[in-house]
Design goal:
Layout (H helix, E strand, L loop, with lengths): L1 E6 L3 H13 L2 E7 L10 E4 L2 E4 L10 H10 L8 H6 L19 E6 L1 E5 L2 E4 L6 H7 L1 H16 L7 H9 L1 H16 L8 H7 L5 H12 L4 H8 L1 E6 L3 H14 L3 E4 L2 E7 L5 E7 L5 E5 L2 E4 L3 H7 L7 H8 L3 E11 L21 E4 L8 E4 H4 L11 E9 L10 H14 L8 E14 L8 H9 L4 E3 L2 H4 L5 H17 L5 H5 L10
Parallel strand pairs: 1-2, 1-13, 2-9, 6-15, 13-19
Antiparallel strand pairs: 3-4, 5-8, 6-7, 10-11, 11-12, 14-17, 14-18, 15-16, 16-17
Helix pairs in contact: 1-11, 1-18, 5-6, 6-7, 6-8, 12-13, 13-16
């Protein structure tokens, strides 16, 4: 049996362990710094109200990942509590299980998400609809239209993300919907982010397409299409994403693998020829643990991995680049309230008639809040009393050690409550209780030293028994399915003895995979 040390029991690490067990001949041992599985995709239980750290849709175009999900967790054979009470139609499977009876089950949920701006709701993604025109007002719309036309005539040289967006959307639209939000998420103005980031992540608009879309909507020719674009369906575990990873970890252990909690990997030890032999970690009691490794799969942040590797394994450029790799951190406040002040003016029925959104992008410039999750709409089972309370998650993008991050939990909850009150989402005094979660390195960022990333990759690829997997493990903006795919791919490379890591780094680079 070859012993494979997997650093991190998040989606990537667990998928890798599971695939290695299926391949046979491998003994995977997961070293997890935390005391739970799931990584960023964990669920936090706060007295029966469960928080999803960010709101994780299970949605994939990969057949392999879909098959893995189905092997681990059955689908619902009957409607979830809210669908049943509201007589809403939803997709069920005859070979599934009843969510009212079974614990582990994927629900089929509807995605509704909108933008809150000027205390009004806008479609997400923003569309040129009568509602948008009404919300923005005639004068603002004229400004947006003329500045868009100006951007078509006068193209700027694209050096920064601002140039990229102004060229595609016009300055006024850029300032209205993109500038502030980008700054909230990435902590820097788009003027200080490279244009290549935009070409990787953002599709442009075509005036012709926008206008024909507008007239089709105005003439009610496109109603059906509009509704399906606003309402997508996705799978979601009854008790949040972490439940799925708990089930997957149970399966890994049942098949003979190990998950060791509270083990923080500090150093990787290897031969002079560049092959890793041992992993050193800090055990939960503070002692130092050592474990032999035939191969190492790492989903720990690349910055930390490079600091843990023998110095001689990295070129000077790789070491300097990795040390300076940028990240954004993330804080979320779970607040339990009796009701929201936002009116449900949609045709969607919900328990307590709350707004039907799973999450809302908050574009209001006067608050730091980035997104608002309404956990009741993700799964009624996330909430202890979904008929009489609303359990919400406020998302803040920040930097480890900055003023927000360093706030005392009580002060942060008060700050979050005040922001929500200010933009009219709740009334003063509506919060019954709250909980704070901080996640380091939630977003690997593509600016700063990232431009020299190829040097890091080249050094890492020279280590014959090291496999970089996952989101921070590859410093890539991966979703859960991409992260799992990297784990599956690494297992396959090890099984087949292929040395080339190209396939591993190619995951999540195709443009078709990215969101509009
Ligand atoms: C706000 C937000 C919303 C998101 N929404 C979605 C969504 O809707 N759909 C979707 O598919 N994806 C979503 N994602 C992405 C998803 O969270 C990640 O893709 C996924 O969790 C990455 O899995 P991973 O295993 O690569 O890494 P992680 O989840 O980061 O897990 C890595 C694990 O490694 C451990 N670790 C780190 N360092 C060490 C060390 N030195 N020693 C031991 N262990 C260590 C960590 O504790 C962690 O458990 C979202 C992410 C965020 C931040």
């Amino acid at each position: 049996m070859r012993q494979v040390i997997i650093i991190g029991a998040g989606p990537a690490g667990l998928a890798a362990a599971y695939a290695l067990q299926k391949a046979e001949g491998f003994h995977p041992i997961l070293l997890e710094a935390d005391d739970v599985v799931g990584g960023l995709s964990r669920t936090v239980d706060f007295g029966g109200n469960r928080m999803d750290i960010g709101g994780h849709r299970f949605f994939t175009k990969s057949r392999e990942v879909q098959a893995l999900w189905e092997e681990i967790m059955p689908y619902a054979s009957a409607p979830a509590l809210d669908d049943r009470l509201l007589h809403r139609t939803c997709e069920t499977r005859s070979d599934g299980v009843d969510p009212e009876q079974a614990e582990a089950v994927f629900l089929n949920r509807q995605r509704i998400s909108r933008i809150l701006y000027l205390h009004k709701f806008f479609d997400y993604p923003v569309s040129l609809s009568l509602q948008t025109i009404r919300n923005l007002g005639f004068a603002r719309m004229c400004g947006i239209g003329t500045s868009y036309l100006a951007s078509c005539v006068h193209k700027r040289e694209e050096k920064t993300l601002e140039d990229f967006m102004v060229n595609r959307f016009g300055r006024r639209l850029y300032e209205t919907f993109f500038e502030g939000y980008t700054e909230k998420v990435w902590g820097r103005n788009p003027r200080r982010i490279g244009a290549d980031w935009g070409s990787q992540r953002i599709k442009g608009i075509s005036l012709g397409a926008v206008l024909s879309d507008f007239f089709a909507r105005a003439l009610h020719l496109k109603q059906k299409k509009v509704e399906t674009s606003l309402i997508e369906r996705f799978s979601y575990p009854k008790y949040g994403p972490g439940q799925f990873y708990e089930c997957l970890a149970d399966e890994v252990v049942r098949r003979g693998g190990e998950v060791r909690f509270g083990c923080f990997v500090k150093k990787l030890i290897g031969d002079e020829d560049g092959t890793l032999r041992e992993v050193l970690y800090r055990a939960p009691d503070g002692s130092e643990g050592r474990i032999a490794a035939d191969a190492v799969f790492s989903s720990m942040p690349i910055k930390d991995l490079c600091a843990a590797l023998p110095e001689a394994y990295l070129s000077e450029e790789a070491r300097v680049t990795a040390e300076a790799l940028p990240y954004r951190d993330f804080m979320t406040a779970g607040l339990l309230v009796d009701r929201l002040e936002l009116k449900n003016e949609t045709a969607h029925k919900t328990l307590g008639n709350i707004v039907p959104d799973c999450w809302i992008y908050v574009q209001e410039p006067e608050v730091k809040l980035g997104r608002l999750q309404i956990f009741n709409n993700w799964s009624p089972y996330l909430v202890r009393d979904p008929q009489h309370t609303v359990w919400i998650g406020l998302e803040y993008f920040c930097q480890e050690g900055d003023a927000l991050w360093s706030m005392d939990d009580g002060d942060f909850l008060a700050f979050a409550e005040e922001e929500l009150t200010r933009i009219g989402v709740i009334r003063p005094g509506a919060v019954r209780e709250g909980h704070v979660v901080r996640m380091k390195k939630a977003y690997p960022a593509y600016y700063g030293s990232y431009r020299s990333f190829p040097a890091v990759r080249a050094s890492l690829d020279r280590v014959p028994n090291l496999y970089c997997i996952g989101r921070n493990g590859q410093h890539r903006y991966n979703n859960m399915d991409h992260s799992m795919l990297t784990g599956l791919c690494a297992a396959e490379l090890l099984r087949t003895g292929k040395k080339d890591r190209h396939a591993l780094w190619e995951i999540n680079t195709e443009r078709a995979y990215q969101e509009t």
